[in-house]
Amino acid sequence: QKLAGVVGLSTWLPLHRKLDQVKKSDHIKEMAIFQAHGTEDPLVPFRWGEITSKVLASMCANYSFHNYPMAHTSCPEELADVKKFLETNLP
């Protein structure tokens, strides 16, 4: 089964060195990925999110990275963007 998309909030790729198999998949190139991160996140540093965004952007054509002025939480703007992503990408 192909995934319609992935939403990653305040996340990073701790196993990024093991992504060789994933990179070979044609599905990852087509999959929609939405990643969001708070610029003031004290738990998962924003820099980790930025590094993850570079890795994912190199693997996926339908990838977007969003940042919001917040800590490790959510905000109305982020939730509105997630809603748009889901409405656009879910069958």
Please provide a written account of the structure.
It is a single chain. With 91 residues, this protein is of the alpha/beta class. It is built from four helices and three strands. Helix content is 41%, strand content 21%. Strands 1-2-3 form a three-stranded parallel beta sheet, sandwiched between helices. Strand 2 (32-38), helix 3 and strand 3 (62-68) form a beta-alpha-beta unit. The chain is flat and about 35 Å long. It starts with a strand and ends with a helix. InterPro entries: AB_hydrolase_fold, LYPA1-2/EST-like, PLipase/COase/thioEstase.
Strand order of the largest sheet: 1-2-3
Low-confidence stretches: none
Mean pLDDT: 91
If you compute it from the alpha carbons, what radius of gyration comes out, rounded to the nearest whole angstrom? 13 Å
Name the beta content range: 15-25%
| Quaternary organisation of the protein chains | single chain
What's the number of extended β-strand segments? Answer: 3
Query: What distance separates the N and C termini?
Result: 13 Å
Helix count equals 4
Which secondary structure elements does this structure contain, and how are they paired or packed?
Elements: E1 5-9, H1 20-23, H2 26-30, E2 32-38, H3 46-59, E3 62-68, H4 76-89
Parallel strand pairs: 1-2, 2-3
